[in-house]
Amino acid sequence: MIKEKELLKGNYAMAQAALNAGCQAYFGYPITPQTEVGEYLSGKMPEMGRAFVSAESEVAAINMLIGAGSTGIKAMTSSSSCAIGLMQEGLSFLCGDEVPCVLMSVMRGGPGLGYIHPSQGDYFQATKGGGNGDYKLIVFAPSNVQESIDLTYKCFYVSQKYRTPVCLLADGMIGQMMEPAVFGEYPYPEIDQSSWALDGAKDREPRCIRTIERDPVVLERRVEKLFRKYEQIAQEENMFEEYKLDDAKLAVTAFGSIARITKSAIRKARENGMKVGLFRPIMLNPFPQKEIAKLASKVDMILDVELNMGQMVQDVRASVETATPVKFYGRAAGKMMTVEEIYAQIEDAYTEMSAK
Q: How many alpha carbons lie under 13 Å from residue 169 in its C-beta half-sphere?
């Protein structure tokens, strides 16, 4: 499986990574800017003897995923923004059922139908969700094409290991851009699902996967079990990147595509004598609260940069509490931020911080 680097489009890279990870069933409905994921798999999956279904709607696709995932196989769907909104009920059921699956969410601008301009407006949708009840979606966010491959592998592994839906939240820009990347081999062990999967009841007791529970005590125990699992995932699978933070007085927090542009702005700030670094959450949910709190105790200010009007910054502020000031700079769906724009925000924040 190890290959030389190839020039890859993000959506195709994620689709091929899903095949490499052993995805056995795909259900989806086309919507830009992720349409190439389904288009790529529509050819490859049947050739490999795997299941590909172009569903009649997003609601149908997510419910097909409940059925396929209940058998223990690796299954996935992909979609974008307003269409992910239609899947929220199914995602709540998948979490309640403890059914493993992968959701590739490639963001477009919004609200409403929006458009395919660069945006990170679906942070709340992915990490807070619109489904009912107490549950969390596990969320990873790549910042380049190579990471979109590596995190696709991670999503399948975490989903299978913990019996939970996992979301790969990619900016539309990452889905559409082309970069050199390498696939490598699927680096995780296969997880045995035979103890719970609905794969036929011959020579064993029947099994039942369901979310309905009339006994409030039993339902409470099931929810508590889910949250013990989320805590375990936070401890064992947490991923983040630290860049030039060793001596930083100002820390910038950012995720996804905007984090890589922020790095260029930080290098420029460093050249001009400012001690600035980057903290990039890669796993957005569960959020790396402890690491952000530790960071806040070492720096004099945090500047959060996002391609939205302020979503992840709420998690940053909740993690920091009152340890250090948190400023925010964001732009809604439209033009991508430039290095110069982010540098100007860093310069302003650094000046304000130094004057105190």
A: 27
**Helix runs in the chain, H state only:** 10-20, 35-47, 58-69, 81-86, 88-97, 123-127, 145-162, 172-176, 216-237, 257-271, 289-296, 312-320, 339-355
Q: Using alpha carbons, select from 217, 237, 235 the residue that is nearest to residue 225.
A: 217
Longest dimension (CA), the chain: 74
**Closest by Cα among 346, 145, 169 to 263:** 346
Decide: 137 and 91 in contact? Cβ < 8 Å: yes
Burial of residue 289 (CB within 10 Å: 0-12, 13-18, 19+) is middle
CA 14/CA 7 separation, integer angstroms? 13
Give pLDDT tens digits for 68-114. Answer: 999 999 999 999 999 999 999 999 999 999 999 999 999 999 899 88
The string of DSSP codes covering 221-270 is HHHHHHHHHHHHHHHHH--EEEES-TT-SEEEE--THHHHHHHHHHHHHH
- Treating both helix axes as pointing N-terminal to C-terminal, what angle do 58-69 and 88-97 enclose, rounded to 10 degrees? 10
pLDDT digits (tens, 9 = 90+) for 245-300: 999 999 999 999 999 999 999 999 999 999 999 999 999 999 999 999 999 999 99
Rg, the chain, Cα only: 21
pTM, to two decimals:
0.96
